[in-house]
Structure formats: C-alpha cells, structure tokens
Amino acid sequence: MSQTLLITGASRGIGAATALQAASAGWQVAVNYRQDEAAAQQVVAAIRAQGGAAAAFPADVSDEAQIIQLFAAVAARFGRIDGLVNNAGATAPLARLDSFSAERIQRMLLLNVAGPMLCCREAVRRMSTRHGGRGGIIVNVSSAASRLGAAGEYIDYAASKGAIDTLTLGLAREVAGEGIRVNAVRPGLIETGIHAISGEPGRVARLSSSVPMQRGGQPQEVAAAIVWLLSDAASFCTGSILDVSGGR
Ligand code: NAP
C-alpha cells in the first residue's frame, strides 16, 4: 500500500512542484488548496497522467476547524496519513513595521505559524507511535527570510518563518522517539506567484544579482529538497533545516 502525503497549498508554486515529484517517488498525494480548485485539479490530473494517485482537498489552513476537517477527509479518502508538508504560506504587501496594523500581523501569524502548528498537531496525533500510529515524516517550508529579517519589506513574514524554524527544532526532538522525523527547507528567492501577491511581481529579477549563484530558484529545485527529506535517504535527519537559496 502506498504511503499518503498531505501537502498544504499545493495548487501552485512550490507545493504543486512538490506534489508532482512526491507522486513520482511513489507517494499518493493529498493536494490541499484554499480557493483555486481548477489549479488544484490540474495538479491532480497531472499526477494521474503520470500514473500516480492524488486527490484535491479544499481547506483554509489558517482555520482550526477546517484543518481538523481536512485531516479527517484525507484519512477517510486514503486510509492513513504518513507525511505532511506544511507549505501553504503567504507574504504581505511590502511595508515598514511602523505602518503595520494589528490585523495584518494577526493574519500573518494565523496562516504562517498557527496553521502549520495545528497541522503538525493533527499529524502527530495520527502518526506518533505514542498514539498508536506507525510513525511519519513532516517537512515545514520556512524561508531564508528567517535568517535575513526582511527589513523594509515584511518583517512579520520573516518572524513567522523564524517561528517555523523553532517549531521544527522543538517538535523534531519531542517526537524523535515516536517514529516521526521533522525537518524544514528554507527557500531563497524562488520564481512563483507569491511575489506578485505582495505587490512586486519582478522581485526575483530585481534581487537575483544579490544571490551568490546570480539567479532565482525554480519551485522544482525546492521540491527536490523536500522530497529528499521525505525519503528514506534522509532517515537520520531530524531537526534539520536545509537552505535552498543559491547561497543567499
Ligand atoms: P504561492 O505560489 O503563492 O502558492 C501558495 C499556495 O498556498 C497556493 O496553493 C495557495 O492556494 C495556498 N494557500 C494560500 N493561503 C492558503 C490558506 N489559507 N489555506 C490553504 N492554502 C493556502 O507560494 P509559493 O511561493 O509556492 O510558497 C510556498 C511556501 O514557500 C510558502 O510557505 C512561502 O512562504 C515559502 N517560500 C517561498 C519563497 C519564494 O520565493 N517563492 C521563498 C521562501 C519561502 P490558493 O491559490 O487556492 O489560495
């Protein structure tokens, strides 16, 4: 029986690339999305076209009730959940901290911190041998912003990813003896639609000369790191944070 992987925010960008590569590696993939059902169904169709198994599951992963429903729906469809990629996340309009509203900060922390933490909770309850599970693997998607701070752009986003790094370290140690590995990737500047949402579609081109490798990355290059961390090849990695940033 194939193992089941839930990827949050898998209708485009890094999540969609990870879904395709994970399916090629033998995972049956639960493709979560928030609103773009057509895009999510395209990812599912592409996986099925290459002979894999996948299904799409709507849920806003900044909402606890929808997260609980999402995990129940995936378990009902596939029978089990063996892997989780906490990928859904967003930046915010470029701004200095002295203009932030409380509402902006709360929205950021709900989606980028509380959501992944609650998804980890649901995963651990199903995977941990302490709860009668068979073990599992979690990969969190952080950002190089957690090291850089995103001054003048979105410090709230950078801080939310700092929380993801710490969540990864702490949870890895908490469940290491319960059959669960927990790791993170820290992408740098990657060519996806996230930059247009924060108001700067040309961000990667503008900043690529500041990247030691002199270019932005492709979502497939991040997906490859995630799928490796999910694999048995990474069997002794837990609490690891892998930079995928061209040296940035
Ligand atoms: P993206 O292209 O904007 O894709 C975001 C995905 O998340 C979409 O599938 C979107 O689905 C989904 N999503 C957004 N809000 C959601 C919610 N509340 N509930 C469920 N799904 C939601 O972003 P990306 O660049 O691939 O980013 C993926 C991850 O990588 C994020 O955590 C991001 O912070 C991180 N990252 C990206 C970069 C970069 O340069 N691109 C760098 C470092 C880290 P819908 O379209 O249906 O809303």
Descriptive overview:
This protein has 248 residues and is of the alpha/beta class. The protein has a single domain (4-244), classed as NAD(P)-binding Rossmann-like Domain (Rossmann fold, 3-Layer(aba) Sandwich). The protein has nine helices and seven strands. The radius of gyration is 17 Å and the shape is globular. NADP nicotinamide-adenine-dinucleotide phosphate is lined by residues 8-15, 32-36, 60-62, 87-90, 111, 141, 143, 187, 189-190, 192-194, 197, 219.
Write out key terms for the chains shown.
NAD(P)-dependent dehydrogenase (Short-subunit alcohol dehydrogenase family), SDR_fam, oxidoreductase activity, Sc_DH/Rdtase_CS, Rossmann fold, single chain, alpha/beta, oxidoreductase, 7 strands, binds NADP nicotinamide-adenine-dinucleotide phosphate, 248 residues, 7-stranded parallel sheet
Walk me through the topology.
Blueprint: E1 4-7, H1 13-24, E2 28-33, H2 37-49, E3 54-58, H3 64-78, E4 83-86, H4 102-127, E5 136-141, H5 145-148, H6 155-175, E6 180-187, H7 194-197, H8 203-207, H9 219-230, E7 241-244
Parallel strand pairs: 1-2, 1-4, 2-3, 4-5, 5-6, 6-7
Helix pairs in contact: 1-2, 1-9, 3-4, 4-6
The structure holds NADP nicotinamide-adenine-dinucleotide phosphate.
NADP nicotinamide-adenine-dinucleotide phosphate is lined by residues 8-15, 32-36, 60-62, 87-90, 111, 141, 143, 187, 189-190, 192-194, 197, 219.
Pfam family, one: adh_short_C2
InterPro entries: NAD(P)-bd_dom_sf, Sc_DH/Rdtase_CS, SDR_fam
Family: Belongs to the short-chain dehydrogenases/reductases (SDR) family.
